[in-house]
Amino acid sequence: MNKYRSHNCAELSEKEIDKIVYISGWLHRKRDHGNLLFIDLRDHYGITQCVIENNNKFFTVLEKSKPESVLKIKGKVVRRASGTENVELKTGKIEISIETLEVLSNAKELPMPVFGEKEYPEDIRLKYRFLDLRREEMHKNIILRSKVISFIREELLKLGFLEFQTPILTSSSPEGARDFLVPSRLNPGKFYALPQAPQQFKQLIMISGFDKYFQIAPCFRDEDARADRSPGEFYQLDLEMSFVEQEDVFSVVEKLMINLFKKFSSKKIINDAFPRISYENAMMKYGTDKPDLRNPLIIFEITDLFNREDIKFDIFKKLVKSGSIVRAIITKNTKDKPRSFFDNIDKWAKEQGASGLAYFTLEKDGGIIGKGPVGKFFSEEALKELIKICDAEIGDSVFLACGKKKEVEQLLSLARDKIANDLNIINKDQFSFCWIVDYPMYEYDEKLKKIIFSHNPFSMPQGDIKQLNFNKPLNIKAYQYDIVCNGIELSSGAIRNHIPELMYKLFSVAGYTEKEVNDKFSGMINAFSYGAPPHGGIAPGIDRIVMLLADKKNIREVTLFPMNQNAEDLMMQAPSNVSEKQLKELSIKKDIKK
Questions:
Q1: Quick one: average pLDDT of 426-431?
Q2: Which of 125, 126, 127, 122 is nearest to 113 (CA)?
Q3: Residue 531 — left, alpha, or beta (φ > 0 → left; ψ -120 to 50 → alpha)?
């Protein structure tokens, strides 16, 4: 029999009354009643209340023990006094009358308490993450993460997927974020890169003749942190399938996501069949390719309206003539909102770096009028046309933005969320998934003044590949797709290009020579020359999935040992200095300017 416990701290019930048991765990909380001392003992499974009388020789030992000390307690299970039961605990109807006590490990004064869920500064939480993880909510989040990964694994194995592990030390990739580099001792002056994703390896697995692959893959990117992205490393469900089209990938992943979210959350999934929204329509209607479809607000294109003579809004008209666009958000039945509601949104827009958001409300005063700061610049006929374009009604309000296309998209995407939250019209008890499809193969980079890949360079372009017009590359669309849920991108995927000649051509548009393609992707381009099946896949982010299921706004709340905003592990003090001996072995000399 185990010498530390006969039961865990969630097992005991009325069935064990009058039995002698022993349990071990952390001293969660103490309550001193003078002649009686009550403690809650906590382990991974739950909490058991224990009580000791002041005539027990172990009373003073327990009295001096600090919270989070590890104890072994032996005693009799007794029924709690009537009225003192705790219905929220599995063990809430019983307690242990302590006979003997052993201190297995003493705790120092805590830098942060484990009992209670009070918020503490991030640097304290991360430095003492092992304490933070003992807190009930954090503990539950990490258990949820484990269960989610186990469920995903079981579901994919049922579907005939095989789980493989791809290399961690690999070659640097020219695309995507910055690589984390690892110097090679045996090859002085050369470096491995930690994989940003197992992209090339997953495709090589398909070329190797395996039909369906997956892994819970660690990925490494030297990126800045944000709420839904960890700096340094993250995990994704990486999967790839041979002889598939886009719809085959969608079918597998939709079923997996629906089963997963239904199992681990009580929130309603709005659509069992995820809507497909083209990238172009997403940018037009929502200003982003990560739309929150719980938000009913839509963006409308109204640039042409400003060619009318009966609109006297000269600031916008001049901007339109110089190439700017105008788009609008309509809020339903907001005529009774106070002026402060509209002014606050205009003020917020200015805080985002914009010139503001023009606005007015559609009302009837004999005829249709625009009530608000800029409403007077619109004739009744112009307002009727706006109502027709935007499917608006009397009593609705109109928010207007004018500027360059990307600036307007960015502002109205944020404004759409801001206004919806201010109006409290987003149902927080729902999950709304969608596919964003038909991404452009290329985009023009204003900073670099050149055409670059917009998404994944290894994707298959849409259409007859023999008829592609490479003279107009910005018109080429790709079989690339994202899953979005509640405004968070969960994954990117694509049907892959498996034809070497086409890959050379696609990369040449982005400025790569054939030699550069051979040098950078030698393993994959060589493999394509020996018979490659059509294949495709996707890689949903584990961290973001668990973040949604746990209803958390920050990815650090569902990650065991995350870094801080500066990509530092405060607990392990990484990154750290290394010795000159280590650097010499790696043929590295530091040249850091202070």
A1: 96
A2: 125
A3: left
At 354, the amino acid letter reads A
The residues near 561 (Cβ < 8 Å, ≥ 6 apart) are 129, 569, 571, 572
What sign does the dihedral 444-445-448-449 (CA atoms) show?
positive
Amino acid 238 reads: D
Confidence bin at 49 (pLDDT 50/70/90): very high
Q: Hey, is 20 helix, strand or coil?
A: strand
pLDDT band with cut points at 50, 70 and 90 for residue 174: low
Q: What is the DSSP letter of 65?
A: P
Provide, for the chain, the percentages of residues in helix, strand and coil under a 3-state DSSP scheme, each rounded to the nearest 5: 30, 25, 40
Neighbour-count burial of 378, counting CB atoms closer than 10 A to its CB (0-12 exposed, 13-18 middle, 19+ buried)? buried
Question: Residue 98's CB: how many other CB atoms inside 10 A?
Answer: 22
Instruction: Give the residue with greater pLDDT, 232 vs 533.
Output: 533
User: Which backbone phi and psi does 146 adopt, to 5 degrees?
Assistant: -60, -45
Residue 176: what pLDDT? 66
Collapsing DSSP states into helix, strand and coil, what is residue 219?
strand
Beta-carbon contacts of residue 403 (< 8 Å; ≥ 6 apart): 319, 324, 325, 354, 355, 411
Angle 25-124-222 from CA coordinates, rounded to 5°: 110
What 3-state class would DSSP assign to 376? helix
| CA distance linking residue 406 with residue 408, whole number of Å | 6
Residue with tokens 């599995």, as numbered in its chain: 90
Torsion over CA of 258, 260, 266 and 267, rounded to 10 degrees?
-50
Pairing of strands 450-453, 268-269: unpaired
Name the phi and psi angles at 547, rounded to 5.
-60, -45
User: Facing residues of 229 across strands?
Assistant: 226
Instruction: Take residue 268 and report the two structure tokens written for it.
Output: 């309603």
Contact 474, 451 (CB under 8 A): yes
Q: How far apart are alpha carbons 433 and 163 in whole angstroms?
A: 26
Cα angle 185-187-190, degrees, rounded to a multiple of 5: 100
Contact 519, 483 (CB under 8 A): no
Name which of 6, 13, 124 is nearest 75 in CA terms.
Answer: 6
d(CA 475, CA 287): 20
Name the amino acid, one letter, at 294: R
Task: Return d(Cα 115, Cα 131) in angstroms, integer.
Answer: 10
C-alpha distances (whole Å) from 478 to each of 67, 484, 501, 503 are 58, 18, 17, 13
From CA 162, how far away is CA 204, in angstroms rounded?
Answer: 14
Distance linking the first and last C-alpha atoms of the chain = 61
Answer yes or no: are the C-beta atoms of 554 and 547 closer than 8 Å. yes
